[in-house]
Amino acid sequence: MTERKYSNPEYYEMVRCYILSKSIRGAQRLYESESLPRLQRQGINARIPNRNTILTVNQRLLEYGQFTTPSHASARGCHSSISADVENAVIEFFERNPRASTNDAAREFGVSQYYVWKLLNSSGYRPHHNKRVQAPDNIDAPTRKKFCEWLLSNIDNTNIMWTGEALFTRVGLHNSRNEHYWAECKPHDIKDYDDQVPLSSNVWAGIIGNIIVGPYFIERRLTGNNYLDMLQGVIYDFLDDLPLVLLNNFYFQHDGAPPHCSNAVRSYLNSEYEGRWIGRGGPIPWPARSQDLTPLHFYLWGEIKRRVYVEEAQSDEDLRSKIIAAFMEVKSAQTQLINVKNNLKKRAQLCIERNGLNFEHLLKYQ
């Protein structure tokens, strides 16, 4: 329910105290020491206003020449006399209930939803959306924290090759709410799509230091056997082409996808990179549900797909050409690749501080 409105004598004292003290805090102190006793002697059940009320009353007086909002200035003309007290109560309502809707506040205080929107906007409040993040189970948290502790202690004196696969389709994920057609009349605009001729490419890539390795197009469905063929063939050749300095203290990383965890794959990695590979069942265990800790997922694939999906691919060859062109463009962005390592350090540190739980929603504030 709406709190009792202030009386005109109370509003007068707020303005007087503000003029004399020339500050909100000073006005509050002066009101408490002088105005409150005076008003109570007059039989007025006065109370100490908060800073927002004092400021709003003075703004109303300067703008409209009166303590309350006149009818012609009310939101949509439907609130003939909305006091500063009501405005303050609305703001306090959202401070107590930051997830409340403007409709909730409108019903609570008997004002229009438009008025609530306008008040929040003029008071500096903005609607902020939550961020969807990978949801690790609590059972994953200790493993994630332990891995990040190892990563921070070794990242500056080791060369980790982060690897992974991603699926590219004809148009990627389509969200119609992100596309608009501005016109005075409804244009009946349409977007063609053809599901009868599916296009897709499964792509492998890696990042080591400031170098992007790949892309390599996987022709068949990825299984343990053909992944082993990749490790012994094309991936081995990629490593041969790397500068020797990057092969010092070298670690190979992949996630816990089933093809990565076959006995044959683990046996090969143990013999080829003894004690120096990261993955499920490896000497350095890779924590489950940890895409937020690998540069391919928090950087590379997003950058590639953002470029590939500018225009719809018309054929398999066209899709591959777009992917290759995107890789060439991203490979040339050396500054971004340097930032990736710094970003990874921040992520590992936040993961430790959060004891292995979600941290991506905190990144922008670091």
TrEMBL record:
<protein>
    <recommendedName>
        <fullName>Transposase</fullName>
    </recommendedName>
</protein>
<dbReference type="GO" id="GO:0003676">
    <property type="term" value="F:nucleic acid binding"/>
</dbReference>
<dbReference type="InterPro" id="IPR036397">
    <property type="entry name" value="RNaseH_sf"/>
</dbReference>
